[in-house]
Design brief:
five-stranded mixed sheet; globular; alpha+beta; about 25% helix; two-stranded antiparallel sheet
């Protein structure tokens, strides 16, 4: 075991353990949306929210891609960190229609949770809204996919691979990037026979949502 200090709190952890999870497991909050614990490969650092400052490093680093070391001194809320993560948060909102009152994930949303914990607003200040205008896939009998609300965190892609199905992956690049099925097939064709709904359970926003009357617990228990 090694010892490190996070925001003035001395904690012990296994050498080279993931910094994000060491902090969270010790009650030290770092915002994140793309990381899943104990998954391989590790998080792609796509949400850009988990930056921290480490003494001795020239610039803030993403905690989800950083391993702990003995004697490490970590700072979670410096001005540099706040500036980076607040900008990253607003960038996510610029591609996400904020319509909480009519969203199925209202009060159970990753963006809402982060905003509440960090004292942020769910509205744009620096950037303009860039609506995507993509069609919603309602073909599957158990769930639907609204790509307009997707924040490209990659959680669904990671969990789909972990489940051994690999039905979801990223397609295209840059501003056109979306989570998609192979060749853009409708979900009812891509997920034919699959009923785990792991992607729905792991989605932090209202992009992948179970249809009315569908129980996530019963679907996952049947696997």
């Amino acid at each position: 075991m090694i010892t490190l200090t996070i925001d003035g709190t001395e904690v012990k952890a296994k050498n080279k353990a993931n910094l994000l999870w060491v902090a969270l497991d010790n009650g030290l909050y770092i915002p994140n949306l793309c990381a899943l614990k104990n998954t391989q490969p590790p998080a792609p650092a796509s949400c850009r929210l988990c930056f921290v400052e480490i003494e001795g490093k020239k610039a803030p680093v993403t905690s989800c891609t950083t391993s702990v070391a003995d004697g490490m001194m970590v700072h979670l809320n410096t001005e540099k960190v706040k500036r980076i993560r607040n900008t990253a948060f607003e960038l996510l909102l610029s591609h996400h229609p904020v319509d909480c009152a009519r969203c199925d994930k209202n009060r159970n949303c990753g963006l809402q949770n982060i905003a509440a914990k960090l004292g942020l607003k769910l509205k744009l200040k620096k950037f303009r809204q860039i609506p995507r205008g993509l069609p919603v896939d309602i073909s599957h009998p158990l769930f639907y996919y609204n790509p307009n609300k997707c924040i490209l965190c990659g959680r669904c892609v990671q969990i789909c691979r972990e489940q051994g199905t690999g039905n979801l992956d990223f397609a295209f690049r840059g501003m056109l990037t979306v989570v998609s099925t192979f060749a853009g097939a409708p979900l009812v064709e891509a997920c034919r026979g699959d009923s785990c709904l792991a992607c729905v359970a792991i989605c932090p926003v209202g992009s992948l949502v179970a249809k009315a009357g569908v129980s996530l617990v019963s679907c996952q228990a049947s696997k």
